[in-house]
Amino acid sequence: MDELDPADGDDEETPPNMARVFDYNLGGTENLEVDREFSVEVDAMMPGMSALCRDHRSFSRAVVDHWCAEGIDQFLELGSGLPTVDHVHTRSRRVHPDARVAYVDWDPRTVEHARRLVAGHEGVSVLHADAGDAAAVLAAPEVRDVLDLSRPVGLLAVGVLHYLHDDALAARAVRAYTDALAPGSGFAISHLTSVGRPDIHAWATMNHGGWSYAPRLRGPVEMTPWLDGWAVVGPGWVSAPDWRPQGPAPGAEVTGSGLWGVVARRG
Known about the structure:
The protein is an alpha/beta fold. It has helices at residues 18-25, 33-45, 49-70, 88-92, 108-118, 134-139, 141-144, 167-180, 198-205, 220-223, 252-255; strands at 74-78, 100-105, 124-128, 154-158, 186-192, 231-232, 238-239, 259-265. One of its GO terms (molecular function) is methyltransferase activity.
């Protein structure tokens, strides 16, 4: 199973990589034994981590399907990780064969790996950048040369904004992205919360030792201002894996999913 590029390494000195761990939890093959062992250890300490990964992807799939049905055929995903297991370009091209996708991730090894995975896919790019630096992301050729920002874009912030700890920075970054998008664009957020999940609170407050970053937990009251000027689609803030364009759907406090999700549209 460990048949990744030698640049990824597969010896005992290789640390777990969160994008590969995510891939493993989705049932993918772009991961190493160290990632699988780490995932088992995390699940023993925080049962449900693998379910969180699947719930993020369930939300992303539902959103992309909705946007494709609405005619959106270009997408910008922040904190994309590895584009595997029914990712955005695969999902969207079932409806729009020429859909264009720009992925953004901050980890250089993940970006290198992701670029190998999408090599040969015209109209798909992977940008190495901090999602919190919206100006740099939007100005990068990996975005500008792939996406036409004068037309509607689907902006996915799935499982990434909780790693922007500074609330003011997060708000500014979101505003910069949303201000840059054309009318008819979509914006989707899934975000960790400890509502109904005390284990996530414990996860957020422990020392992560450098292999990952503790998330900043937020709720709808804190994040709703990010959507100023946008129309919420469907049921509003709900448990992310339960979101559908036609409501209603239960909240995270009801399902205990640990994830808030919302989708909005720029009129």
